[in-house]
Specification:
Number of strands: 9
CATH topology of the largest domain: Translation Initiation Factor IF3
Order of helices and strands: HEEHEEHEHEHEEEH
Largest sheet: 5 strands, mixed
Distance between the termini: 46 Å
Structural class: alpha+beta
Oligomer: single chain
Mean pLDDT: 83
Radius of gyration: 29 Å
CATH architecture of the largest domain: 2-Layer Sandwich
CATH superfamily of the largest domain: Translation initiation factor 3 (IF-3), C-terminal domain
Shape: rod-shaped
Helix content: 40-55%
């Protein structure tokens, strides 16, 4: 039962309550101090409702008579509301090559701007194949030009990094930087 309870993340109900005395809150809102759990359970069954332990860490624990299905539904709605308030920021990746043409760079730059305006991080990666690694300076210059053109809405998270024939930099939207500080 405890394993099920932990997965459920909801409070124990009815026969799962293992304490001898509880502070009972009835369906009408009436509060009864130091009520026996068996008596409280009988009262809940008489009303056709469930006994739910809402504050297990209190002394004595607080139990409430209510409809289990309704309680479960309300808890799910609260979780959904909490999730709705959180904003999931993604890291978008744009890949380039040292031979990428000017027009293609402009199109990719527009896409990067779009991502940054939505508040996403953007990782720009320049990939080198074979002997193209000899043009590392051209790749660095190209990435620095991109960063300079985007400096009005983005700020580099770190300096350029080179690993496994890939030159990369991550850009953060400036609005987000202000929020963090």
């Amino acid at each position: 039962m405890k394993r099920y309870q932990q997965q459920n993340k909801l409070h124990p109900k009815n026969a799962e309550i293992r304490v001898p005395f509880v502070t009972l809150v009835t369906a009408d809102g009436e509060k009864i101090e130091n009520c026996e759990t068996k008596k409280a359970l009988a009262m809940a069954y008489d009303d056709g409702l469930d006994l739910i332990l809402v504050a297990p860490n209190a002394n004595p624990p607080v139990a409430r008579i209510m409809d289990w299905g309704k309680y479960k539904y309300e808890q799910q709605k609260k979780e959904e509301q909490n999730k709705k308030g959180q904003k999931n920021l993604e890291t978008k990746e744009i890949r380039l090559r040292p031979q990428t043409g000017q027009h293609d760079l402009e199109i990719k730059m527009n896409k990067i701007r779009e991502f940054l305006e939505k508040g996403h991080k953007v990782k720009i990666t320049m990939m080198f194949r074979g002997r193209e690694v000899a043009y590392l300076d051209k790749g660095k210059q190209s990435l620095n030009n991109l960063i300079d053109q985007l400096n009005d809405i983005a700020k580099p998270d770190d300096r350029l990094t080179f690993q496994f024939k890939r030159l990369s930099v991550t850009l953060l939207p400036i609005k987000q930087e202000i929020k963090k500080q």
